[in-house]
Structure to design on (169 residues):
């Protein structure tokens, strides 16, 4: 087995940032304001990052109305989520902050792709978990009605306030 040689950090090239800033893009600035408002009203943690990401996706869908802008919308959501976690959430220590940033980097990009895939129909949950696919805890007996789980959440997601309105949702 060959030995692994580690390269010192100073020998590596500096990372290149392709992340736009709110100064460059008013849509990022608007989503960032909304995200900071959400983060002040909710505890942002590894347990709530799915809910937070879903909120950001709903908001960016309203802010970016141009067609075929999926990659841009994902970039905006990731930029804002990283920025809020890095700058606007109090952590007990640097280790907790690094752990949540790790979740954001490793989990959220796939989460966004999955949410969009389900929403657009390119991922067919019924086929995956239905009678023709793999059986799992979500499967119900054929013909069984879904459980009543209470009032439904509007499909449109959160309403994005106009530029002069409060960003807290």
């Amino acid at each position: 087995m060959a030995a692994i040689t580690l390269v010192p950090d100073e020998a590596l090239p500096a990372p290149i940032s392709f992340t736009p800033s709110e100064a460059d893009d008013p849509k990022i600035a608007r989503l960032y304001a909304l995200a900071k408002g959400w983060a002040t009203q909710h505890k942002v943690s590894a347990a709530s990052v799915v809910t937070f990401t879903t909120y950001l996706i709903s908001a960016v869908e309203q802010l970016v109305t141009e067609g075929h802008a999926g990659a841009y919308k994902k970039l905006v959501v990731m930029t804002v989520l990283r920025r809020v976690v890095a700058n606007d959430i109090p952590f007990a220590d640097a280790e907790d902050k690094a752990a949540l940033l790790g979740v954001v980097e490793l989990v959220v990009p796939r989460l966004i792709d999955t949410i969009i895939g389900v929403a657009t129909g390119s991922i067919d949950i019924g086929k995956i978990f239905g009678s023709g696919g793999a059986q799992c805890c979500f499967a119900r007996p054929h013909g069984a009605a879904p459980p009543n789980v209470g009032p439904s959440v509007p499909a449109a997601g959160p309403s994005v306030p106009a530029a002069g309105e409060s960003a807290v949702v």
The CA atoms of residues 57 and 77 lie 7 Å apart. The chain has six helices and no strands. Residues 12-18, 149-156 have pLDDT under 50 and may be disordered.
